[in-house]
Specification:
mainly alpha, TSN36 protein
């Protein structure tokens, strides 16, 4: 019993730290899908982030309750803690499963979505230069084209002859124009790989923040069960 009480006290403080980590992960996922909403039409893709935020909010009172039980046992508090731990496990398993399935779905659609943006940019003659969705992505991620700058050459049209947008240039060459005379001034990587890496980090972060706390919550449930006997 004394070991269970000590473990619960320690886990209570750990839960507060995990709540902060969960909060960061949830906000990151939500902001990623908000910033690149023109690539993803489905609004539900940010659901793992919202589940992570809900988990973080529930972890805070759970941590308080866990520390309180380790000091003074109460049947009502112990029962409430069990319900909260069960709720947290459900939320975290759902968040982990959604993060995996959504990431697989997103990566399969990302290439065609980027290709469409490049094609649209080259064929819309009335488009304001530098203000399209693909220009915003290229400036933000310091990338050029879907795979590299040659994607812009293949997509040349009567409205936009062979060349690259100004957003393709590296920051120190941002004053340059979209000719093909100085290829070394273009951003080296394509946007597809950088977007995939960005999304992979956000989803893996949420996945890790769901699996690791669930193990600690099982330990807390076992310790609480020992004290309830």
């Amino acid at each position: 019993r004394s070991f269970s009480q000590s473990l619960l006290r320690l886990l209570g403080f750990i839960f507060w730290g995990i709540a902060t980590v969960q909060l960061y992960g949830g906000v990151s996922v939500i902001l990623v899908f908000k910033n690149y909403s023109y690539l993803f039409q489905e609004s539900y893709l940010s659901l793992p982030g919202w589940l992570a935020l809900a988990t973080a909010l529930i972890l805070l009172p759970t941590g308080v309750l866990t520390v309180s039980i380790s000091v003074k046992c109460s049947c009502k508090q112990q029962g409430t803690l069990m319900y909260l731990l069960l709720l947290l496990l459900c939320l975290e398993m759902s968040s982990a499963a959604l993060a995996c399935s959504y990431y697989a779905r997103i990566t399969s659609q990302l290439g065609s979505a980027m290709g469409y943006l490049v094609h649209q940019h080259k064929w819309l003659c009335s488009q304001d230069p530098g203000n399209s969705a693909v220009d915003i992505i290229q400036r933000k991620l310091q990338c050029c084209g879907v795979h590299n700058y040659t994607d812009w050459i293949k997509a040349s049209s009567c409205c936009h002859p062979a060349g690259v947008p100004e957003s393709c240039y590296k920051e120190k060459h941002s004053h340059c124009r979209g000719g093909l005379d100085h290829v070394e001034q273009f951003s080296d990587e394509g946007c597809l790989k950088k977007l995939e890496d960005h999304l992979c980090f956000a989803m893996l972060y949420v996945f890790g923040c769901s699996i690791v706390p669930s193990i600690l919550e099982l330990l807390a449930a076992i310790s609480n069960g020992i004290l309830m006997r």
